[in-house]
Amino acid sequence: MSQTPPDATLAPPGGAQMPFPHGYYLPPPLPPWANPRTIEYVEGDPVPRGYGFKTRADRTLVGAGLVTFGVPYALSFTVASIATLGDEDFDQFGPLFIPFVGPMIAATTLEGAEGSALFWLTMDAVAQVGGLLLYVAGFAHEEVYLQRQFPVGARGARDAEDASLRAPTLSIGASSAELRWRF
């Protein structure tokens, strides 16, 4: 008759899973300086300890607005600069230096502006105004995110840069030198 050794574990009845053996623990939490500085916040998510709500302009809309305005305006500015080098055509191409309404003014001042030239001037004005609207919408729509908060210690309030950047400071004078490293 074979017997099982006294320290051998038997499988639980009914096909249940074996429990984890003793000695497995969760890893310790990260120190505060190792956590990310900002976390994207989704409505309804719990706020982790040490973080607080912050708002900022919607960077995606602001960037899209700047690019949408900047590219057509740069093209208008370049065309106006090249066309007015001779100082003869400034009255016709000069309005292209004005953002937003310059292409529409140039459509009336350019001699023989018809067909495709009128179309591209109108598209230029529409793109510049569209970029302005995206830029304004980016500042009007606030984005909510979580930012790491630093507690007030015995030395007083620490700012985020000082607490997260543990870099040494070197001061060299006329007859002395000093090296400080804050922990």
What does this structure look like?
The chain is α+β, with helices and mostly antiparallel strands and 183 residues long. It has a domain at 32-151. Helices cover 37% and strands 14% of the residues. It has a three-stranded antiparallel beta sheet. Strands 4-5 form a two-stranded antiparallel ribbon. β4 (169-172) and β5 form a beta hairpin. The protein is elongated.
Give the percentage of residues in beta strands: 5-15%
Poorly predicted regions are: 152-157
Helix content: 25-40%
What's the alpha carbon Rg, rounded to whole Å? Answer: 33 Å
Q: What does the main sheet amount to?
A: 3 strands, antiparallel
Mean pLDDT: 80
Count of DSSP-assigned helices: 5
- Output the helix-strand order: EEHHHHEHEE
Which strand order do you get reading across the main beta sheet? 1-3-2
Q: How would the global form be characterised?
A: elongated
Number of strands: 5
The span between the termini is: 67 Å
Query: Structural class from helices and strands?
Result: alpha+beta
Compact description:
The chain contains five helices and five strands; from the N terminus they run E-E-H-H-H-H-E-H-E-E. It is an alpha+beta fold. A hairpin with a 4-residue loop joins strand 4 and strand 5.
Secondary-structure topology with pairs:
Elements: E1 38-40, E2 51-57, H1 59-83, H2 90-93, H3 102-109, H4 116-140, E3 142-148, H5 160-164, E4 169-172, E5 177-180
Antiparallel strand pairs: 1-3, 2-3, 4-5
Helix pairs in contact: 1-4, 3-4
List descriptors.
5 helices
